[in-house]
Amino acid sequence: MRFDVLTLFPELFAPFLQAGVTRRAYESGQVQVQLWNPRDFAEGNYRRVDDRPFGGGPGMVMMAEPLARALATVRAARGDDGAPVLLFSPIGERLDHAGVERWGAGPGAILVCGRYEGIDQRFIDRFVDVQLSLGDFVLSGGEIPAMALLDAVARLQPGVLGDEGSHQADSFNPALDGLLDCPHYTRPEVWDGVAAPAELLSGHHAQIERWRRDQRLALTAARRPELLDAARSAGRLSRADEALLAKLGKKHL
Ligand code: 9D3
């Protein structure tokens, strides 16, 4: 699948695309990424891509025309495949696992990264299908959110993670019942006077799995009770799970 990214700072993506387990997905072309700078589509000696906001106020606004030209070139390069145009914006809908699966399927997408105070609304109204946000905090632009989506999509591709099973264990993969992940430990068995949980050192597979499941249930009950409710409604909690939760309830944890 293919992602085209419109950004005034394409150089921010280079180290990201060249590092970590997701690199394989980009280098193999399993997830193709092409970067486009709207400045290369801007007019005049100054190649202006932004201007002062009509009506006044702080900051600058990205002009519609350089973005529209860049987008037209991207669409032609993609063979007008109908890929959706996603704009990263603080007023967008929150990106979650369902969104990653949705936008990480099919032909891929065209990602538009905003900078400054925002983008001329006429570009958004004409071309943007969906606006996506990472959450209620302020970034300097849409580049990190675009990389977040690309990273999440890359790790869903078969063979990208070293251990094939790793993403099966991710908290928001429904295959793992939508519970938060359990704590992890590694050598040494005692670090700075603190022992790793005895259950994990027992060598008893069933005991280890029960400990992990109990940890996940307790953590999810404490931090994300709505995820636990969803797991219960979907029939993903066993009688042993319910017994553990009842015990936790009595302890007022
Ligand atoms: C008070 C006006 N600001 C809105 C919070 C203006 C503004 C600040 C920062 C407009 C754009 C930006 C740049 N942010 C993004 O482009 C962005 C973003 C974010 O800031 N937080 C979470 N998700 C995202 S996705 C894109």
CATH hierarchy class name of the largest domain = Alpha Beta
Strand order of the largest sheet: 2-1-6-5-8
Number of helical regions:
10
Strand content: 15-25%
Ligand types: ligand 9D3
Overall number of strands: 10
- Structural class by secondary-structure content: alpha/beta
Largest sheet: 5 strands, parallel
Query: How helix-rich are the residues, as a percent range?
Result: 25-40%
How do the SSEs run, as a string of H and E? Answer: EHHEEEHEHEEHEHEEHHHH
Q: CATH superfamily membership of the largest domain, which one? A: SPOUT methyltransferase, trefoil knot domain
What's the pLDDT, averaged over the residues? 94
Rg calc: 23 Å
CATH topology assignment of the largest domain:
Alpha/beta knot
- Give the distance, in angstroms, between the N- and C-terminal Cα atoms: 45 Å
Low-confidence stretches: none
Keywords: Cytoplasm, Methyltransferase, S-adenosyl-L-methionine, Transferase, tRNA processing
Binding site for S-adenosyl-L-methionine: 114, 134-139
Subunit structure: Homodimer.
EC number: 2.1.1.228
Plain-language structure description:
- The protein is of the alpha/beta class.
- It has two domains: 2-154, 3-Layer(aba) Sandwich (Alpha/beta knot); 170-251, Trp Operon Repressor, Chain A (Orthogonal Bundle), CATH 1.10.1270.
- The chain is built from ten helices and ten strands.
- It has helices at 13-17, 23-27, 64-77, 97-103, 121-127, 143-154, 198-201, 205-223, 225-233, 239-250, and strands at residues 2-6, 32-36, 50-51, 61-62, 85-94, 108-113, 118-119, 130-133, 190-191, 194-195.
- The strands form three sheets. The protein has a five-stranded parallel beta sheet. A three-stranded mixed beta sheet has the order 3-4-7.
- Strand 9 (190-191) and strand 10 form a beta hairpin.
- Helix 3 runs parallel beside helix 5 (121-127).
- The two termini are 45 Å apart.
- Residues 88-90, 92, 114, 117-118, 133-135, 137-142, 145 line the site of ligand 9D3.
